[in-house]
Each structure stands twice: as structure tokens, then as C-alpha cells.
Amino acid sequence: MIETVTRPHRDTLVRWAAGRPEVLVLSADLTASCEADAFRDTYPERFFSLGMAEQNMMGFAAGLAREGFYPYIHTFAVFITRRPFDQVAMSIGYPNLPVRLVGFLPGITTPGGVTHQAIDDVGLMRLIPNMTVLEAGDATDVESVLAVTQAIDGPVYIRQLRGEVPRLFPADEPMRLGRARPLGNAPASGADLCVLSSGICTEEAMRAVAALRGHGVGVTHLHISTLKPFDDPQLAQAIDGAGRGVITMENHSTIGGLGAAVAELMAERGAGVPLRRIGLRDRYAHGASRGYLMREYGLDAPALIAAAEALVGEPLAIGADDLAAVRVEQMRAVEKTEDL
Amino acid sequence: MTAAAPSQTPDAPAARVRRVADAVRRRVLEYTLKNNGGYLSQACSSAELLATLYLRSMRLGASRAPLTPRPFAGVPGPENPDAFTGADYNGPRAPELDRFIFSPVHYALVLYSLLIELGRLGPNGLDAFNQDGSTVELIGAEHSPGHEVTAGSLGQALSQAGGIALARRLKGESGRVWVLLSDGEFQEGQTWEAFAALGHHRIGNLGVVIDANAQQCDGAMADVMTIEPLAARLRAFGADVHEVDGHDSDALAAAAEGLGDGPDGHGRPLAIIARTDPCRGIELMRERMPRIHYVRFKSDAEFQAYQDLLARMTAEAGA
Q1: The complex's ipTM?
Q2: Which residues in chain A have their CB less than 8 angstroms from residue B142's CB?
């Protein structure tokens, strides 16, 4: 069974920032909620509380970045991407400043309701020129995203996970910029389906893909952690190799996020297969548990099975019991023989 | 025979500020006529503020930028190493030197004209004003001469200046950060967020000069959305507030004196509320009140009246 890691960002941030005096943390009254409390207690001279005033916090971060510091803003994703959008776009995005926006509570991961659920953050951040958009899907992603981020010349939005986080990928296989993780055994030749998943949806997708493969459906499955830029050659190859269609699965609106990026890529390539986008279908979520909302909005493994059935054109007789029986194991990225 | 007061002698700092400010008004009027439109009232209100900052209060080195403004080199981005800001017109970056952050960038023509009077920009520096491909834009951007940050949306530059001032304190630099703010920017909530943060973090190496001309696009601020009592509000936010006549250079310079003398940049942010007259030096504009935010001439007769005024102002200056 997969391991669960408790608050991986909290410890990683302290350890990773140890030899980096230029790294600062800015917080807007959600310090422990965003697992920045250990950083605050370890490096109090590098921690700045800016209060519930996100517009001003973006400007302070921009000014600090102009002077050679690397401000890591910690707050909920909605409070980075909605309220201070103009400040992110004008004070940080336009001058291409190395401000790091670490946004927590993506999509339906919080029961906090519509005000706390970032269902449009990826779309909003993708819209800003110069912005790189990353999303963590497991503990290994969470632990390695800071190193990926720090190497980027310009602003970065990190869609981050907190609390109990599963480790889906080996701890010694860190996230890489612009490189998707191929998961499980792709068919040797001619896949039926290409599944592209991100964030917490990857764990659900792994469950469904294992069941599909068990029923003889050839599936290529990639976990996406770089949502912008979106130029990984593995994506084009996986899309081109899918005979029956492509499925995207994300904890976000189907407008503006992973599904939209894939639709744009497929249209530009002239890909001649259908695309099914699993995500929030232009609807707000509401306050309830993650499991409840994933079922209600169709973000779970059965939703992926249904999309696969629609694309292959036949029922696959995979029921809830089959999915429950699937053991999700930690997955080492498949080393492909092709030079990518 | 009694000695002239210090500000009356030709070489006194206040006299120099007055000469420069008058020249700025003439040049802004000239370009407003040339373009049949311009931010003329902003020159009338802020000419002494900007001239006093540059001539008396800020510690700046010599310009490091070309006298003829560079053409636009593209927007900043990882693929564009050629992008630049216009801050080098304000001299080099050095630990002991001040920085100037210009927030109401629709005042750009006023700043360009001042830079010409100070020799930081050549006499032909405005040839490319408002031309395609130029950095000498109608509304200044961070690549425009004398500008450093992106501020056109208003209310965003003070927070950026706060971050710069905090960074300078962290680095142990003695240089200060000055911000020119327009009073209309106090209608934006972010300005108050910024003053709260400056006070809370005791950022004492930052000075804000406010052009309180009481006018905005729709007319008088008192009618659109009042910000008064501004001094009391700012004091309540923890600022060290001075309220002065914004056309009195000696009063402005005295209020600016001593900024950053606190220990290690800790202290209170300075706020100078400069009460100004948006028609100062161009009385003709009072006929247009209260719509003077952007002056565009409505008739040939009006254009001619301003043309005649410029001729008179130029003749008086030459006399």
C-alpha cells in the first residue's frame, strides 16, 4: 500500500531554506495552515507577517524580489489568484520577478466551501505572461517542487498540498520541470487511450487505469506537474499514440486548466481523436468532504471508467467492487526507450 | 538696506526650484498644445514637489542613462535580456543613495520635463513623446525615463516601495526610498494596506510625498469620494505626518529633512501631505473646473488662448 506523509511541505521548507538566506517567507495570517510555522519559528528574521492584506503583500514581495530576495508567499490559493489578481499580473508578472506564490487548498480538497476552494486558480495563473504554473500530486512532488521552482527565472505559482499527503512516486524521483511522469506499463504499441492527470486526481486515475489495463484496454498514463509551460514532448507523443481518445482529469474547472491546455495542444497538432475532460464542469463546488465532492462532481475513478467506456464504445464491466479491489502501489516512472 | 530672505536670492534652493518648476509648467503646456491634450493640471500641482525632491531632498547620483531616450526594448521576460527600467535616469544604485518610486504615472510628462530641466534628459528628450516604439510614453511604464516600477493601475507602487525599503533595511543600506503619490490613490484600499504594513514593520526609511490637489477624473475628490481627514487618518495608521503648502519648496524640504535617521531604518514612515493648486501658474484652467484631469481643447479660440498664454510665459521667463 502507499505510504502517507504528514505535512511534507512543513519540514521540507525548513530543511531546503537552511543554506539559502535570500529565501524569505511572507504570510497573510495563515501561517500554520500553510505549513510555514516551522520556517517562522526557525528563521524568524526571514519571516514577515503581512496580515490579511494580500494586495499589499504582492507589492511587498515584488519590491523584495527587485532587491535580490526570493519571497515565498504562503496563503490559500484563492487568496493569491482571485483578490489580488491585478497585483500579481502588474507588480509581479509584468516585470518577471522571481516571486514564488505557494497556494494551498486546491479545488475540492477543503470543506471550507466556495470561498476557500480554488477551482479556477490554474486558469487564472496560466493567463499571466511570464508565469510558470506547477502542481504537486503527491509527497514526492511536494518535497521537490521548491528546488524546481528556485531554478526558474521569473514568477512561479505552486498549487501545493498540505496535511496528509500520499506518496505515489518514489522519494528519490523528484519532480522535474516540464517533464510528465509516465505511470505503469504503457502498451508496447498502439495505446487505446491516453490519460493525463494532475494533482490529487492522479491517485484516482491510477486506480482506474489499473482496472482498465486489467480489462485489456491499452492506456498510456502521464502525471502532469508542469501546467505552464506546456511543451513536454511526451505529451504530444502520448496524444498522437492514442487510438481511441484522450482523457484529462483534474481537480479544477474544465475551463482554463489541464483539460483546456490539452485541448489547445490537440487542436494545434490536429489530433484526430476525441477528448474527454474530467473536472468541475463550469460549476462552483460547496462545503463538504473531499470524498463526497469527488463523487458528486465526478472527479473519481468511476468517472474515469465512464469516460473510457464512452471512448472505446463499449461497456467494460468494471464496477465499484473492482475499483475497490485495486491496490494502488507507489509507481516508479517508466523509463522509456525513446529519447524524449 | 535689508538682506533678502534666503529664498529670495537667485541662488537660494527655493529660487532654483521655482525656476525649474516654472520651466516644467511651460514645457508641459507646450506639449499639451502640440498633442491637443495632456495632463496639464498635474504639472501645475506637482512641479514644486518633484523639483524639491530632485533638487533638495533626494540623495541621487548622476544619471547613467542616455540623454536621448532609448527605444522600447520589449517587455520583460525570461527570453528578453534587453529589457530595462528607466531608473538609471535617477542615477546608479548604491547602498548610500536614495531611490525614487513614481506612482501616479499619468504625471509622466511632468517627470520627463523635470528631467530635461535637470539635464538628466537631453533637450530633445521629448521628441519621441507618445510615439510608437518609444519609451517616452503618455502614461509612463517602468521603462520610461525616471520610472522604476509598473504603477499605471494606481495604488500598487507604494507596496512595491515598501518591499524595496524593507529589503534595503535587511541589507543594511543607508539609502532611503521616496514615493510620489497622488491623493486619488488613497481611494484604493491597497494604499491603506500598505500604510498599515509600513507602520507595523516600522519602516522608517521610506518617505511618501502626496500631491493633494483634491482633483480626480470625475471632478473634485470631495464630490467623488472624499479621503479627508487625510492627516488624521495617516497619523492613526502610524505615519509621521507633515501637512504643507505644496508650492512652498522650503516647507517641503523642511518636512523631508531627517528621513531615515532612525536606527537601522526602523521608525515611522514619513508622509508629507502637500496641499496643491491644480491651476497654479495657469489661471486660465480655472474656467474648465472641475474637469481638468486631462485637458483637451474644445475650440480653436480656447486653443489660441492657451497658445497666447504660453507665448507670454515664455517671454516673461526670457526677460
Answers
A1: 0.94
A2: 94-95
